[in-house]
Design brief:
The chain has 226 residues and is an alpha/beta fold. α5 runs parallel beside α6 (145-154). It is globular, with a radius of gyration of 19 Å. The protein has helices spanning 4-36, 46-53, 70-73, 87-97, 112-124, 145-154, 217-225; strands at residues 40-43, 59-61, 79-83, 102-105, 128-131, 158-165, 208-212. Helix content is 39%, strand content 15%. The protein is built from seven helices and seven strands. The chain starts with a helix and ends with a helix.
Length: 226
């Protein structure tokens, strides 16, 4: 008979196996399945493609709330992504590995300085590096200083990447985005300079818009303040 302690230990090991071994391939397959079900359009990618043709690399930045579909929109050959040392971070690291990305573990609250040094070294060696400027703890959609320090230290341009989608039976333009970015009028995806644009769709259709621009409203606002 197993003791209570042994049962708890066995349960913990099983849970850890499910999270780290079973969940990542299933999650990666789910992301690819969702992507195949969408009609995607990429906008503003010309400048980024030009950088890659010149042999240059980038600091890719996206809001934390949009991380699910970012692996599909990335246009490079592989990157190093800043991921927290939290338990959930290990799951995310294993998921992105299925898309050819590597993890650099650390965050603003744990291991951040070491992770920043590692990203700087990677960026200087000719790798794409990826961060979420607002981080998991927020404030949401407010870029922190780390992304600026990273760009200055590596000499790489910051390229914001955003994802927006329309609902299947939307009544008007851009009523939903995955990041919940809204214009002052209370409608999403309507301000071109924010990096989101959408067109009126026929009833029953779906439209998903990628935006890859040199600056987004939130990030640009923070840059102007520093």
């Amino acid at each position: 008979m197993l003791s209570v302690e042994n049962k708890k230990s066995l349960k913990k090991r099983v849970e850890q196996w499910v999270k780290c071994s079973l969940l990542p391939p299933l999650a990666a397959a789910a992301i690819r399945s969702v992507a195949r079900s969408m009609r995607c359009e990429t906008r503003g990618h010309e400048a980024v493609d030009a950088l890659y043709r010149e042999g240059r690399h980038i600091v890719l930045a996206f809001w934390h709330a949009q991380q699910l579909m970012i692996p599909i929109g990335y246009r490079g050959t592989g990157s190093h992504v800043l991921i927290s040392r939290h338990g959930d971070g290990e799951i995310i690291a294993r998921i992105i590995a299925k898309f050819g990305h590597e993890a650099v573990r650390g965050s603003s609250t744990r291991g951040g300085a070491g992770a920043l040094r590692a990203l700087i070294k990677l960026g200087r060696s000719g790798r794409d590096v990826v961060v979420t400027p607002d981080g998991p703890k927020g404030p949401r959609h407010v870029a922190k200083l780390g992304v600026i320090q990273l760009a200055k230290a590596t000499g790489l341009p910051i390229v914001p990447l955003a994802f927006a989608c329309s609902k299947k039976n939307s009544f008007r333009v851009g009523i939903a985005t995955w990041s919940h970015i809204h214009s002052p009028e209370g409608c999403s995806c309507t301000e071109p300079r924010s990096g989101f644009r959408a067109k009126r769709m026929r009833r029953g259709s779906k439209r998903h818009v990628w935006s890859l621009r040199r600056s987004s409203t939130g990030l640009r606002t923070r840059l102007m303040q520093w």
